[in-house]
Amino acid sequence: MQTYYCRDNTENVPYCTTGGNQGYIRNQSYIWEGQSKDTEKPSVWKSAISLILEALQHSEKENMARKKRVAFILVDGLADVSIPSLGLRTPVQAASTPNIDAMARAGVNGLMDPVEPGLACGSDTAHLSLLGYDPLIYYRGRGAFESLGAGLAMSPGDIAFKSNFATIDDASGIVTSRRADRHFEEEGPILCEALNGLKLPSFPKYQVCVRYATEHRCGVVVKGPRLSGNISGTDPLKDNRPLQVVVPLDDSEEAKHTAAIVNELSQEMRRILTAHPLNAQRQSQGKSIANVVLLRGCGIRIEVPAFQEKHGLVPCMVAPTKIIAGLGLSLGIDILDAPGATGDYRTILTSKAVAIAGALSAPSKSTPSIFIPGEEDSKPGRSEGYDFGFLHIKAIDDAGHDKAVELKVRAFEAVDVMIGQLARLLLEEEASREKFEYSLCITGDHSTPVEYGDHSFEPVPFTICHLKDFVVAKGGESVVLRTDLSPFNLPLAGSSALAALAEQASARGCCDSCDPPVAGDSVVRFDEISAARGCLGRFQGSEMMGIIKKYIHL
Ligand SMILES: [Zn+2]
């Protein structure tokens, strides 16, 4: 293996990387490409080499002493396409994001196809792929993720559904709205309580558990003998279509039997919901009623090697969105409590930053408590802390689904403010105790083009940088440490005019005024177009963990 010696321009400390093209990661210039140790060299070279080797060993020791930890920010539905009302810029391009741009200037950039080019995927499939689990091998339906995330304990053999409270026209059997109400946090749990433990008259041996998730969603688990996950669902997937009859997807007796059970379950749920006083009350208030639960994504709990086993990093996650939390739980990832983080527009992003920073700073700070399905109370988190802090943000995807252009831009700007807070909290730890060396990484799981209103297949931008380079990009420690840590709300939809946004977008379009890159590649902004010029090029989501691990261990 050949060794490349290089010099870091900013600190003037030589360090090395071995083999391959890893030099792109950090250094600005090579001083020479080395020779093998046993080659005869003139004495001046020998002394130069020994000096450099000494420095290398010293720097390696320092690196060994500091444990590497990563804050990984996943913005759901991040990427988009050029929007005419934004002057043909994407919402990410239009947003003013000085902190995330500083990450791009400080690190390496690329464009990522979360699963594969041309594939529009769900968040769960994409997350599996990004975390190193091939969805073609491991994916078994989203039902189990949703239910685990909602706090329903699942045993082998149990089936679960991803479920929506929806509105059906009883006379015609047409689902008029697949989401009864997005703001269902107070009423959802009451209706779930009414459905939990319901009895199936023809199948008395089977137990039904229902638990509220987020927004209009809930988790549904069926327990009992001879169940199959290989059945269709009742969800018509579009409004104004008939409620579907569940059918077996293979010829097994188990699948036929399970389809019959689930059809009866769907009817029983409708009966209970129609008679529930809460729906009478909603009707009298002119609100849409929640008289059906759409059942889809029937799945069994996946059995996979745990994340820590696979990657050698102890992981934690902040994900109020239940399906993501359930996916994390399936991979053995601890789910941190983050009070006020809701997984919707009312979320307090600061709370997520504080939870992840606490988990990555432990043991000097206390770790947040963690959530265990099937248990009422939280349990203490890992006292030694975590190495990989996964911070999930849903609001940007919601804005995409809601076709809210301004909100998608402003919500992403709010993510930028949160990243500034996270960087400050991590820097306080890194600078004061010199125990950990942090990296910051940001990307998305798929595109949700805001004018289209659903997931699509465009690649997502990806950036990873070392915190210390981010600090240089921001103008020094004192600047980062002055970041305001006050919690803030996401901006409301319609809080700014589109014209102003277009103007802001066009101001960001001028690249001459950008601050220069600090390390890594020449990219100076975080967006879909700039990322395409990054040194990572275009890569697949299955390669992401490999890139992160290579980057942080240098
Ligand atoms: Zn989505």
Please describe the structure with a list of short key phrases separated by commas or semicolons:
554 residues; alpha/beta; Alkaline Phosphatase, subunit A; 3 domains; eight-stranded mixed sheet; six-stranded antiparallel sheet; 35% helix; globular; disordered N terminus; binds zinc ion; Pglycerate_mutase_ApgM; phosphoglycerate mutase activity; Metalloenzyme domain-containing protein; Metalloenzyme
Q: What CATH architecture label of the largest domain applies? A: 3-Layer(aba) Sandwich
Shape: globular
Number of helices, counting only DSSP H or I runs of 4 residues or more: 19
Number of strands: 17
CATH class of the largest domain, named: Alpha Beta
How much β-strand is present in the residues? 15-25%
Largest sheet strand order: 13-12-14-4-15-16-5-17
Q: Which segments are poorly predicted (pLDDT under 50) over 5 or more consecutive residues?
A: 1-42
Helix fraction bin: 25-40%
User: What is the C-alpha radius of gyration, as a whole number of Å?
Assistant: 26 Å
Termini separation = 17 Å
Work out the count of structural domains: 3
The CATH topology assignment of the largest domain is Alkaline Phosphatase, subunit A
- Average residue pLDDT: 85
Going by helix content, strand content and strand pairing, the class is alpha/beta
Main sheet record: 8 strands, mixed
CATH homology superfamily name of the largest domain: Alkaline Phosphatase, subunit A
